[in-house]
From TrEMBL:
Keywords of this entry: Endonuclease, Hydrolase, Nuclease
Protein name: Endonuclease/exonuclease/phosphatase family protein
Claim: Hydrolase is one of the keywords in the record: yes
Source domain of life: Eukaryota
GO terms assigned for molecular function: endonuclease activity
Segments forming domain Endonuclease/exonuclease/phosphatase: 4-200
Keyword Hydrolase in record: yes
Length: 246
């Protein structure tokens, strides 16, 4: 069950829809998590039909900001557990295999509110013993190496985010491909790149999918690149080989 995550910065834009259709045709994800849809459930339902997906959970935007959507191919495989303006948490069941959790996360864009995202991770970690994976635009880096250009990332945000990973047992998956997922100012002296989009898992989930890969699909109609989570239980032909967790 491959999972595509993308901060689309407005899914109603023709360029966003064209890009999303192209990615689906090439990558064939089973699940799609979208951040900043900037739209309502009615528009997301129209998108679901256009993309020919069976399932949809959406969180309406607040005016021109926010909005989340989770779409999936086979309707009976996903069951909603909880949601907020910053997350959609579901249980995944595929072909009688062990169930696991998937959380689509949109980290608070306002740095002064970032602790709310950290508390969200803590609450989700306490909510279930199922193997768990979280993916999305987390709006936070883990090290200074996750940012290129511009001023150094605030140390208190790095330290706080790392503390959350220690407390919850979440493990950051390595990204195959270009190391940054967001950019602005390309071709100027202010060009900045940051890895804001990532996937985090706990050890029981990694034990289920020991050869998991996380790919940066690079380039999009948004300032964020989509990322693709490919859970694997055995070796098969793919984009790349190598370790995928750190």
């Amino acid at each position: 069950m491959n999972v595509l995550s993308w901060n689309c910065r407005g899914v109603g834009l023709p360029s966003s829809i064209r890009f999303l259709k192209d990615v689906i045709r090439q990558e064939r994800p089973s699940v799609i998590f979208l951040c900043e849809t900037k739209d309502n459930k009615g528009k997301m339902e129209s998108l679901r039909r256009a993309l020919q997906f069976d399932g949809l959970i959406s969180v309406d935007s607040q005016g021109k900001s926010g909005g989340l959507a989770l779409l999936w191919k086979v309707k009976d495989q996903i069951q909603l557990r909880s949601w907020s303006r910053n997350h959609i948490d579901v249980e995944v069941k595929v072909d009688g295999k062990q169930a696991w959790r998937l959380s689509g996360i949109y980290g608070e864009p306002n740095r002064n509110q970032r602790r709310k995202t950290w508390d969200l991770f803590r609450n989700l970690a306490r909510d279930s013993n199922l193997p768990w994976c979280a993916i999305g635009d987390l709006n936070n880096v883990l090290t200074q190496q996750d940012k290129k250009g511009g001023a150094p990332y605030p140390s208190w945000l790095i330290e706080g985010f790392n503390e959350v990973l220690v407390e919850t047992g979440l493990i950051d998956l390595d990204l195959v491909g270009h190391q940054f997922t967001w950019e602005r100012g390309r071709g100027t002296s202010a060009w900045t790149e940051v890895r804001l989009d990532r996937a985090l898992t706990i050890l029981p989930w990694l034990n289920m999918f020991p050869l998991v890969k996380l790919y940066n699909l690079e380039g999009s109609s948004s300032d964020h690149s989509p990322i693709m989570l490919v859970p694997q239980v055995c070796e098969k032909l793919g984009r790349s080989k190598g370790s995928s967790a750190r």
